[in-house]
Amino acid sequence: MTFLKIPYGISNFRTIQEEGYVYVDKTKYIRVLEDYPAPYQFFLRPRRFGKSLFVSVLNYYYDINEKDKFPEIFNGTEIGSEPTAKRSSYYILNFDFSAIPTGREEELQAGFSSRVSESITQFCDQYNLSLSLPQSGSPAEMLTGFFSRLPTTMNGRVFVIIDEYDHFANELLSFNLHLFQETISRQGFIRKWYEALKIGTKKYVARIFATGVSPITLDSLTSGFNISEDLTRNPLFHEMMGFTEHEVRDLINLALPEGIHPPDMLQTMQHYYNGYLFCEDAQTRLFNSDMILYYLRSYKVRNKPPEQLLDMNIASDYGKIGRLLELKSPMSNIAVLKEIVYTGETTAQITAQFSMEREFTRDDFISLLFYLGLLTIKKPIPGELSLTIPNYVIKGLYFDLFTRFIAQEGSFELEPDRIREAMREIGYEGRCSKLIGLIEDLLHAFSNRDFIGFDEKYIKIALFTYANMSNLYLVKSEYEVSDGYIDIALLKRDPWHPDYYAVFELKYLKMGEASPMRIEEVKMAGREQLSRYISSPELSSIPNLKRWVLVFAGDTCVVVDELSS
Length: 565
What we know:
Blueprint: H1 13-18, H2 28-35, E1 40-44, H3 51-62, H4 70-73, H5 78-81, E2 91-96, H6 105-126, H7 139-148, E3 158-163, H8 167-175, H9 177-183, H10 189-200, E4 205-212, H11 218-222, E5 229-230, H12 245-255, H13 265-273, H14 289-302, H15 312-318, H16 321-324, H17 330-343, E6 345-348, H18 362-371, E7 376-381, E8 384-388, H19 392-409, H20 416-429, H21 433-444, H22 456-470, E9 474-481, E10 484-491, E11 501-509, H23 516-534, H24 537-540, E12 545-553, E13 556-562
Parallel strand pairs: 1-4, 1-5, 2-3, 3-4, 11-12
Antiparallel strand pairs: 6-8, 7-8, 9-10, 10-11, 12-13
């Protein structure tokens, strides 16, 4: 059997089809989009969810220039065997608004104008048009001038495709709210450009499909561009981007020989990358497609999983959440962060359109986390939604952010070398003294008043974060076993094979409560809990499993109690 290549980082559909890459067939949604009564469509998904590839599929499907090559390009796809009447019938006008400089207003406008100009020039070259195009003016004037010069043969036959319509807006939102408001809200040049695009729909533009991450600019554009429909949370399109479990199974079978990957690979990837639900009426939870391809490519190339669970390209995107905490209402945002970290979930009404010209509410901040892929729908509740962390990779991001936040508050610097050394001590010596020292150092950074309301959750978060940063283990917090929930479990994570694995039961006492008798009571309660947990089938077969009860009083670990095997 010939195994196909993994298309990690490839967003050109033709390349995938012609060069032996596996393609997860999403072409059936072309028909669904075409039959949908709204011809001007917006669709949002988190970064690296397959948006650019889907845009490429639309490009090749509808481009009149690709008519003769259609059977070749769409060979083996669902839409290729039963194409719609409108295939190969449009002139495609592409706009890609990623990677536009956002340092100053002049840079932003120049970058946006350049992209508009490049797209128009490419269109003219692609369809052999000799047009006297305007060489200067605002982006709106450039687009208006272009439409006015199109030949009548193109009337009603232009398909505008916009990829990452909000990329620069999200960048601005993270560090320059004023510039965001000046350029996108109010009467900025970007709003004027969309007004020009709307005018183009009266005669030239038949269809629009735009992708992005968040609706952060939609409200600002509404008055100037009120013709589009946001399909993001429409159940008809829930599986249009991202992978289902069935699709991941097929990917594994098509791309990897059976002997290369372990039998529990799918289960492992479910822990790391699954869990996304974008519509409360949908039934299927989705995998982040980029993360799946990243993981599988490592097996394809190295016969083992990647050392870093999170693709660094995605990590840089998600890392911006720290800056979003400062958006509009920092104290309210931090309170949300604490709630998510402590409980793993929160509630909100999802905001369909944001406006930075009105109050930025708690619901707005939570909704932004939802659109970024940092929260997902757990279940509907009366009047709002229950939202949760989708998977362990994202959970690690939250815990890391929170640990860094409390460290910053205490003027404490995290030391990666010490963290890795502490985890190696557990893995290869079966001791946890260095890890306890790290946690104590973090706690020492706070004054006594900071321990008001302090509990084992802080300890758990710090321990989870340190263990996760080392990449030596699959780290689980509140790990469910048959008799309850283990506070922290350090389990097997390929490709590493340490000599020891570990589980922790954590207890915390305020200094005023930490009498010898009370410490002993809490320790024995922890021993009893842990004894029940480790007899469960999930843990009983793990070799060399270290079992610790840790009791902290104030900023000091007063009990390190190891249960015998």
